[in-house]
Description:
Elements: E1 6-7, H1 14-24, H2 26-32, E2 34-38, H3 40-48, E3 55-59, H4 66-73, E4 82-84, H5 86-92, E5 101-106, E6 117-120, H6 126-139, E7 143-146, H7 156-162, E8 170-172, H8 177-182, E9 187-191, E10 197-198, E11 208-212, H9 221-226, E12 229-232, H10 244-262
Parallel strand pairs: 1-4, 3-4, 6-7, 6-11, 7-8, 9-11, 9-12, 10-12
Antiparallel strand pairs: 2-5, 3-5
Helix pairs in contact: 1-2, 6-7, 6-10
Amino acid sequence: MPHPYRTLTSPHNDTLKHLARLVQFARDRRKDDVIVLEGIHLLEAALEQGVVPAQCFINEAALGRSEVSALLARLPQTLSPLVVPEALLGKLTSLSSAPELIAVCPRPHPPRRSGSCLLLEDIQDPGNMGTILRSAAASGVMEVFLSKGCADVFSPKVLRAGMGAHFVLNLHEAADLADVLAGFAGRKLVTHLEGSQSLYAQDLRGDVAFVFGNEGAGVSPALLQQADCRVRIPMPGHAESLNVAMAATICLFERVRQLEVSLG
């Protein structure tokens, strides 16, 4: 059976005003324990991993599109999508124009699991954050711990940059990174411009915790002290340093390379 639709046309509607706050403010998303997905591609990625939206706001102009109809057919029958005129939805979104839909979903709280992991300390740039998450997902490192000082990992900008990576990773927000490292049984590596050992001299085939710090300040002294090894990424050219997202990607895929070689 098709979903019943209800149309919201007033910008003063309380439901739409609340949606606007959820899109704009991390504190409101955290208070409601939700995330906001803008566009069909993010919702598709979420549905693939079993995430069920609590609310879905449909762009009235997109109702007849086949990809939107197919996506709506995958929603539970208990969910009644709300239709919003395109001009009004365009005022609510963080995008430059109105998306096909906006979905509000429960914020994930995955259990902590063993294995290789990524520790992110006070990463602030949404683009960096999203790129790091994409690289982690692609490399098979599924446990990601984020300090309290990180940008909101479920902000609209990070979600867009992550391209669906959020829904295959286990993201642990506001984590005590020192505690995570203290309880980690594998190798603990941090990249450092003055690292004494090359990344490419490290054996990364077992469980590894990779630690990356703030774009300007780097990894804090407290976490540096907990690392087994401070490694450098060789740079024979003229750059002084690498962007943190690039450094994380190089480290993650050096691990992939070593695993591939060990398998023959």
